[in-house]
Amino acid sequence: MLIRKLEEIRGTDRSVSDKGWESSRMLLAEDGMGFSFHITTLQAGGEWTFHYQHHVESVFVISGRGSVEDLATGERHELAPGTLYALNAHDRHTLRAETELVTACVFNPPVTGNEVHDETGAYRPAAAAA
């Protein structure tokens, strides 16, 4: 059994920050669960374009308001507490935070914790990230 506390993850090498967001990686590939689990906080007023070409991701909004736009279709969806969106087709998307957004995110395959977004907004596959 694994027990982790968010306040113990923040400030460690499992906490990753970049341009207006911070992600506390509660579970990583090394934990052997087959997925990774993150609590991610996005700053109010931020906008990010991501394209996870090697991962699928689901995102559950814990608090805050914003939107996610599917860049293939132009369809935009409002985000509020209790909303989940899943990038089940490696969807290229833009995420916008009207207020601070706190989300719970699951990645498959799991991230290792060493990934950084490349120029396309993707994480490289785990084998290439190591």
Walkthrough of the structure:
The protein has a domain at 28-108: Jelly Rolls, CATH 2.60.120.10. 6% of the residues lie in helices and 43% in strands. It has 2 helices and 10 strands, in the order H-E-E-E-E-E-E-E-E-E-E-H. The chain has helices at residues 6-9, 126-129; strands spanning 15-18, 21-27, 36-42, 47-50, 56-63, 66-70, 76-79, 84-87, 93-97, 101-108. The strands form 2 sheets. A 6-stranded antiparallel sheet has the order 1-2-3-10-5-8, with no helix packed on it. The longest helix is centred in the first third of the chain and has 4 residues, at 6-9. It is globular. The mean pLDDT is 90. Catalyzes the circularization of gamma-N-acetyl-alpha,gamma-diaminobutyric acid (ADABA) to ectoine (1,4,5,6-tetrahydro-2-methyl-4-pyrimidine carboxylic acid), which is an excellent osmoprotectant. Pathway: Amine and polyamine biosynthesis; ectoine biosynthesis; L-ectoine from L-aspartate 4-semialdehyde: step 3/3. Belongs to the ectoine synthase family.
